[in-house]
């Protein structure tokens, strides 16, 4: 099968130029002009950008959490992702203490393989380090292609790991070529503050934010960075929400440490005041770390622009307002943490970032796709439009206007965190390995067509190209 996308403007992390893109057998076969090949199909992309498909490095699909299970599974979640311009997700595989890691990975394969409509990989949660785990991790890197491990510094008595676990994970990752990811909040301090608030009768959603202060995130971020330096290892801090954490990442990077940071759309456009919405609506905006005071948004934008933060993840972790978020009525600590973001990550970032002049169009591609591919062992198969790369392409109308709403979104959840926001720019068609998943804004993909991605080992030299400041 050969397809030719004509007349579009190809945009990568480095370039922007008008060209035709020839696709053969799922790969980009040639980029140029005036092809005389016989093709099965010609797609006219006049007036549109051709972006490499977005890569979402942070999703929680069909994940048990907070006494319930996230509302979007690998089918609804990846369909919504595709509508939004994302063609690869890397999901967090949870593990249980005392159970072989292999079993947890198999569970995640069972959930995803007949459902995903785009390609996907897994990060693996590490909650304990012992002889069994140390024996298993190298095989998992080698055979399963899982080259990133997640350690939670928060969620005490649930996911939280201690510093020894984090440190030994960092050492193992260094030795075998993996990247350690942390959820950085001081779980002990947060746990104390939550209990204190509840004992004082403070039960509303806003106390979720007030009991998880920015200092708790900054402290854990700094601690993780220090341990990374001590282990001479590599660290990726997920969902950075505030100046306190950015400062710690910046300081570590100035010292030459291999520390990277991700932020999420919610921290760039929403703020703590959303948690004060009446009638328990604040619960819709409960995730961890919490939304911050508005001034933090400028700090995050500047860090993305200057390269101190490298990527944008969604932290997709959707719960319905009715039936799930309301588990926390009368006790904010029981509100399931997380929100539905997978669909709007890409176009919201284009609209707020490129259209509003905060970042360049090349930085946009770098932050939502290219750098993520480089950090997580997927480049250049994913993350760019180049000869030989997978034909994961978003045909994007930069001038289309749209209002975000739960009435029109495709996530399996009864609210949208960005309800009513107007955005400029919209994916029209989306291809995964050369096949349409979205065509003229309609879903035409097939559950089960998404392939599991075995990822390459973390390489400092590849990741370092993600440190370059592109202006
Ligand atoms: O509130 C959040 N972020 N939920 C998802 C789990 C996590 O901490 O990433
Ligand atoms: Zn063919
Ligand atoms: Zn987290
Ligand atoms: Zn998360």
TrEMBL record:
Q: Which UniProt keywords apply?
A: Hydrolase, Metal-binding
A Pfam family matched in the record: Amidohydro_1
CDD domains membership: D-HYD
A GO molecular function held by the record:
dihydropyrimidinase activity
EC number, UniProt record:
3.5.2.2
- Please indicate if the UniProt record lists NAD as a keyword: no
Q: Which InterPro entries match?
A: Amidohydro-rel, Hydantoinase/dihydroPyrase, Metal-dep_hydrolase_composite, Metal_Hydrolase, Metallo-dep_Hydrolases_sf
Residue span(s) of domain Amidohydrolase-related: 49-437
Q: Which cofactor does it need?
A: Zn(2+)
Family, per entry: Belongs to the metallo-dependent hydrolases superfamily. Hydantoinase/dihydropyrimidinase family.
Matches recorded under NCBIfam families = D-hydantoinase
Q: What is this protein called?
A: Dihydropyrimidinase
Q: Which organism is it from?
A: Mesobacillus maritimus
Q: What is the lineage of its organism?
A: Bacteria, Bacillati, Bacillota, Bacilli, Bacillales
